[in-house]
Amino acid sequence: MEVASTFISNSSLLINKSISDFSLDKLSLGNFGFSDLKNLNWVSLLITSVIALLIYDQIKYQLNKGSIAGPTFKIWPIIGPFLESFDPKFEEYKAKWDSGPLSCVSIFHKFVIIASKRDIARKILMSPKYVKPCVVDVAVKILRPTNWVFLDGKAHVDYRKGLNGLFTRNALQSYIPAQEFVYDRYLTKFQEITKKNGKYPFFHDFREIMCAVSLKTFCGDYITDDQIRTIADDYYLVTAALELVNFPIILPFTKPWYGRKVADMTMKIFEQCAKLSKENIRSGAIGNCVMDAWVEIMDDQSNTVREFSNREISEAIFTFLFASQDASSSACCWLFQIVADRPDVIQKIREEQLRVRDNDPYKKLSFEMIENMTYTNMVVKETLRFRPPVLMVPYVVKKNYPIDENYTAPKGSMLIPTLYPALHDPEVYEDPEEFIPERWVEGSKASEAKKNWLVFGTGPHVCLGQQYVMMMFTGLIGKAFLFNDIKHHITPLSEEIRVFATIFPKDDCILEFTKRKDPKALE
Ligand code: HEM
């Protein structure tokens, strides 16, 4: 407060000084006329307005900040740490979380509150009365205003109920053959990449396999290989268009413009797939993808799910792709890198993979098989704890929100519960900076600490795809290490975290995939 008041008094001195300097200069010219007076008024008005704005900006910041942690005053007036947000650094986020249970920054007119403690983060995620997910302005234009993700309160809960059926046990097991088809195809491709290039950064290829798995799971055989390739190639333009810092109007040839083009093209393909799925299922076919499951649920007389148009289905499926793509690509990079670095983990995975296949490596994947991959599942779980793809989930405050007895978040501010600190809490996870899959054995402290498991959020917006994610990665990583020797080329940047929507190893995950001659061997 002291610094702010110094700033204010210095500013008013500055107003007086600039006016008097200006007047003296003009007067000394000896030909001071009416037009000069008009200029003088404009210039002084401008200077006064700018200074008043600066003072308002600082006072507003102080009032919003109250007693929580954060810079004493806005070091960069108006813009705040706007420039830093172009290149977010994991270490800077961590310093912010460590600075207090609630901390803040202000960027332009946006006041941002970061909640780092587990219980406060949970409380926020479970307070739909006060908060709703924060979407960048441009998201409404890209995902279309009619999209279900923009629903709030009861309308959101009701809509979600209709989607739950897409991720039940029955539905999930019908997706496995399509997923295995993509795993096999891409694992072969990864071997070919290695044959051609030797060691190679797999970051982009992991994004591509994740996109292909999603598209095949969502659209089955209704989507063509060419369409999958086009979407997988261009999808990164959607991520780039939806950066937190972006221009709200879509101007031609800007990132949002390219992003919307890709989104429109993708939703058009999905709409066509929905049409084909309805025709196919209604002619008696058995479903094997998310769209089929949706049609089956709509047609099931025993439940009350209404008919959804092809366009609605296409918009919702696009949100699945959108919600999944970055987080899954992040998890995929870390999973391959972390496991490849640990021969003991690889050996245990291989033992288990052979056991669940009755020692026949070529047995087709099934849901029961994946359910029995207890160790491989713990490896996936520990990877998600150790390197949680989503660090924070931005929400917006709908009305003044008393977060605790000392602090009320003002209406309109951005409130960001963080997930990372709860997942690295030393009280629950002994040696939290160590990768220890065994910490997840049934009945252990970690497995009982349900409140700390925030990888997928919690509350009314908790991730819809969480069971799907666990199933998909357990199946994928098991197969990948059963059939491949995967060598990770460690660099000084391998363990450094790059933030690009989610988190990635800074060296883009340099690996080599070599087909194993004998997948029955354990070494
Ligand atoms: C490793 C992969 C993934 C991670 C770490 C992840 C994490 C998250 C998180 C943290 C949220 C926000 C939860 C909240 O606000 O409380 C979320 C929401 C969501 N996720 Fe995921 N997710 C992943 C993959 C997926 C996949 C594969 C799908 C779809 C098949 C999906 C669908 C969704 C949807 C639809 C929402 C929004 C739900 C709503 O607003 O009601 N996610 N996810």
Topology, pairings included?
Elements: H1 2-29, H2 34-65, H3 90-98, E1 102-107, E2 110-115, H4 118-125, E3 131-133, H5 137-143, H6 153-164, H7 169-197, E4 200-201, H8 203-219, H9 225-234, H10 236-241, H11 255-282, H12 290-299, H13 310-340, H14 343-356, H15 367-371, H16 374-386, E5 395-397, E6 401-404, E7 407-409, E8 414-417, H17 420-423, H18 445-448, H19 466-483, E9 484-488, E10 497-500, E11 502-505, E12 510-515
Helix pairs in contact: 1-2, 5-11, 7-8, 7-19, 8-9, 8-13, 11-12, 11-13, 13-16, 14-16, 14-19, 16-19
Structure explained in plain terms:
- This protein has about 525 residues and is of the alpha+beta class.
- Helices cover about 55% and strands about 10% of the residues.
- The chain has 19 helices and 12 strands.
- It has helices spanning about 1-30, 35-65, 90-100, 120-125, 135-145, 155-165, 170-195, 205-220, 225-235, 235-240, 255-280, 290-300, 310-340, 345-355, 365-370, 375-385, 420-425, 445-450, 465-485; strands at about 100-105, 110-115, 130-135, 200, 395, 400-405, 405-410, 415, 485-490, 495-500, 500-505, 510-515.
- The strands form 4 sheets. The protein has a 5-stranded mixed beta sheet with strand order 1-2-8-5-3. It has a 3-stranded antiparallel beta sheet with strand order 4-12-9.
- Helix 13 (about 310-340) crosses helix 16 (about 375-385) and helix 16 (about 375-385) crosses helix 19.
- The longest helix has about 30 residues, at about 35-65.
- The structure holds protoporphyrin IX containing FE (HEM).
- It is an enzyme of class 1 (oxidoreductase).
- This is C-22 sterol desaturase ERG5.
